[in-house]
Amino acid sequence: MSNEVIIRFDEVSFEYDKKLILSEASFSIRRNSKVTLMGQNGAGKSTIFQLIVGKLKPESGKINIAQNLSIAIAKQVIPRDQLSLTVREFFEKCFTKKVYDIDPKIDDVLEIVNLDAPKDRIIKSFSGGQQARLLLASALIQNSDVLLLDEPTNNLDKEGIEHLTKFIIGCKKTVVVISHDANFLNSFTEAVVYLDVFNRKTEQYAGNYYDVVKEITARVEKQGMKNAQLAKEIQENKDKANFFANKGGQMRMVAKRMRDKASDLEEAKVEIRREDKTIKPFKIPMQRGVGGELMYISSLSVMKKGKPSVKNVNISLRKNEHLLLSGPNGIGKSTLLESLANSTAKGAAITEGVEVGYYRQDFSTLDFKDTVFNSLLRVAKDLNEEQMRGIAAGFLITGDLMRSKIGDLSEGQKGLVSFARLVMQKPGLLILDEPTNHINFRHIPVIAQALDKYEGAMILVSHVPDFVKKIRIDEIVDLERL
């Protein structure tokens, strides 16, 4: 039965490290439906996936899974302890029991995700976009009834996203997706489960993604108008109560009735479903005392037909100049950015004394064992603690989050910590590798504005056209055409 409920959360609560993640969450997922799991960075969306597959257990409530239902999950990133595996070993780990003659199955799923990957190739040698395809393939090879896809478009180029979209639309399975790509979500969404980061409860909606966002916005406005009217009446009754109370005698009884009415009206006010908070507008200050040519590149190494190829170029980056590097997944953009940031690229030189701010897509520039506080403190330079906390708060990094370890954060929260560090670091050269990955779509225009106004030299890689359009780009180098 296509309308059968196959996953149901009944008042499920869950805590992690004494922090409430879910509070009596209730929702259901029907067979063969295409569902979006929506919520702010760090709300607990990935935790819901882990609860569904049984990796985590609820504190209270019940999770009902249909009998004999098989579930596969494609995580946001490949676990670090699997990066040294070969492609074959990576797929073998998808099964609890040994699968004989697995190679044909690997060939089939790699064809579905449109990836040419030799089975003896090491996972970490693949680009971010290629790893995203491997993650999807790791879920598909299990041939499960339900697919849980956690940020599947991260690192994918335009062709990869189009390919994934067609697959989901044509897929005869139940698919639940976490993503911040609104256009991608709207192309297949039939229902939305929204996890509210404020009250830790879930809300369920029918309809496509844009319809649901519109419905939520209209409801918030209606609730706000109702509360504004009640607030006006409350204040009027309080004013009258104060007036009559000063008259003395029997007027005090009238004043009491006015206060009681005001109290009743207070109880009638509804709790407005708060919208996701957006990070505050910010500026990445440029390093003082540097000028002229900050970086010169005479040659670049790119991957052509699976082999490195050196191409001659003539790129000079000065203050206030922004360079966009473009090209398909697998051409070597991330490898190139890493070598540029670490000054190991042959044919490229950073002027001595120039501070490099490097935003890496896998956040490996962060120490996952560090607390957020210590991670920020390392780059805070001349800032005092109050100033450091003020900058962090602008990126929604406050309270318990400051004491959390980097490794315990959601991928989106790691991204916000990385941006806060760049603000404190004050680089002269900014190198950014897919800075919108994992980031809540509400934050992206704010980030674009900050990069657009950055006054140092900048090298950017991004597969998100709408994001790039909002940023001043002075030069584009298409690695595929070199």
Summarize the structure in words.
- The structure is a single chain.
- The protein has 15 helices and 17 strands.
- With 482 residues, it is an alpha/beta fold.
- Strands 5-6-7-3-8-9 form a 6-stranded mixed beta sheet, with helices on both faces.
- Helix 3 (103-112) packs across helix 4 (128-140) and helix 11 (385-394) crosses helix 13 (411-425).
- The chain starts with a strand and ends with a strand.
Number of helices: 15
Radius of gyration over all CA atoms, rounded: 26 Å
Q: How many strands, what sense, and barrel or not for the largest sheet?
A: 6 strands, mixed
Derived from helix and strand composition plus strand pairing, the structural class reads alpha/beta
Number of strands: 17
pLDDT < 50 stretches: none
Net shape: globular
Distance between the termini: 54 Å
Residue-averaged pLDDT, rounded? 89
Q: Fraction of residues in helices? A: 25-40%
Query: In which order are the strands of the major sheet placed?
Result: 5-6-7-3-8-9
Query: What is the percentage of strand-forming residues?
Result: 15-25%
Describe what is shown at a glance.
The protein has 482 residues and is an alpha/beta fold.
Q: What is the topological layout?
A:
Blueprint: E1 5-16, E2 19-30, E3 34-39, H1 45-52, E4 60-65, E5 71-74, H2 87-92, H3 103-112, H4 128-140, E6 146-150, H5 158-170, E7 174-178, H6 182-186, E8 191-195, E9 202-206, H7 209-245, H8 251-268, E10 293-304, E11 307-318, E12 322-326, H9 333-341, E13 348-350, E14 356-359, H10 372-377, H11 385-394, H12 400-403, H13 411-425, E15 429-433, H14 444-452, E16 457-461, H15 465-469, E17 475-478
